[in-house]
Design brief:
Blueprint lengths: L9 H9 L3 E2 L2 E2 L4 H5 L5 H9 L4 H23 L8 H8 L3 H7 L3 H25 L7 H12 L3 H14 L2 H26 L6 H22 L5 H23 L3
Antiparallel strand pairs: 1-2
Amino acid sequence: MTHARKRPDKAAMTLQLDRAPSVDGENLEVGAADRAAPSPTGSARRAQRSIGPSPRQIAKSGAMRLRVLEATIDCLQEGKSHEVSIAVIAEHAAISRGAVQYHFATRRDLLCAVIEHINARRLQQFSADLAAIRPDEDLAERMVDTHWKHLGERDFLAYQELVLLARSDPELTEAFAPIYQAFLAEWYETARRAFGWSYRDREVMKAGNIVHYVLEGMAYGQLAGQLSPDVIADMLDHSKSILRAAIQKKQDGG
């Protein structure tokens, strides 16, 4: 006698499917929505990537880029501009050459980025120096003293090497020129915002340029050991007097 196979109860099957197994009495049930969501396909993953890098990836990339820039500045301020190459920077930063070239395809790209990085930091420092001057302080003295101090620091030492390097490299000279002009324009604007020092005024421009280039020229002379401390002190005092006279003339409406 043949017995008909009992068909499973459909409701019971549904209940069994909806209930996940448990471990140590803890229910591991997965909701219907979770079951319905398939794992991302290749096209879905590509779509996710097309949205762009995550904040973590952006931060990691920025940190690596900064690491390369700072490693280059280290090499430059040691007076080894002629040795600066992608391979040397990669070794100094303890990263692969490919990692350097991911951010900077060529040596020229890297050096241009370095000078922009240095200029941005110098402008930030200049703005902070001006903001820290008290109303009762001698503006000319404080500006000259702080600027001279920064010209002996790491960033400007690296900048000097970049300028010397560009002297024998026409491509770098051409690339650096607009970067330097943009730096000067922002320097002038920072001074205008801080204390109304407008470089559109011919006398203001002349006084500012005399002081600026006297100090930078002394920095190069000091680098070569050509200036004694007495000469430097005398030139700093003279620079202050030039700047002080220009500021006073402006305040008097001249």
